[in-house]
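Issue: ligand-bound run for zinc ion - logging full I/O for the record.

Environment: standard queue, default settings, no custom constraints.

Inputs:
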Amino acid sequence: MFHVKQNSNLIPVVQCPICESNDLSLYMETKDYFYTQEDFTITKCNKCEFVFTNPVPKNLARYYETDEYLSHNTKDGGPIASLYSLLRSINIKRKYNLVSSFCKSGKILDIGSGSGELLNYFNTNSWETTGIEPNITARSFSKKEYSLDIYDEDKLDSLQPEYFDVISMWHVLEHVSNLNNRLMQVKRLIKENGTLIFALPNLNSPDANKYQKYWSALDVPRHLYHFTQKTFNKLLEKHDLKLIHAEPMKLDAYYVSMLSEKYKKNRFPLLTAIIGGYLSNFKARKNNNYSSMIFVVQKGK
Ligand SMILES: [Zn+2]
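Outputs:
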């Protein structure tokens, strides 16, 4: 058995969150390049191949205490901030169109609603919207700016069962401390024929393979799980959920490449990222293994 680093501020994960095996081995050593520069290790389950951050800090909230992370800087300058802002507005329309293709209108719950731009877009298109956002600054902003109904995560247990037509988690599941519990919560809240949407970084993507420990979508310790399509499917099976559609988020390859280049201390991250993002998407076409994927999921086997 592989022994994880011992440190009183870190909690070792001794069982695979998906298959519960304790046959784990070291997958990678990396760093919190985004914020603290602290070292972290990532573990792989030898039985089901699930890859996850291990050990995990006791106080995870501390790793979100950077303004840059919370807002991804939409206002004040910098090429990364500007690009992120541009990608976000393109993404909102795209996400709306994707959701609408599975459900024309109804009640949507967005978990990890951030500063509320996406929910506001649904709201102005006659959807009934509810948001969950753990960050108090983002929560207050979206309430004030867009008059949205946004709650903290505790609210998930008291919302009405089988109420929502759509529940979305855009780049959220990889952050959630209790993975299995979160899936049970969304299963309780979704209607029988409702649609669950998960957007996740893809550990099997060409850019993950290229950047290895510098791959910015590892984002340790904020990302606790590093899914592939295969391991995500195993998680779904475990919860009697089924994948009905998978599609790429092609713009993520550019953003992820740029951040990864920055971590590698490339002085011209933008230029390299444009080429790298394009190449990643090009290579990913072969087996639909893009930098980030959107999975559309329903109840049933
Ligand atoms: Zn496992």
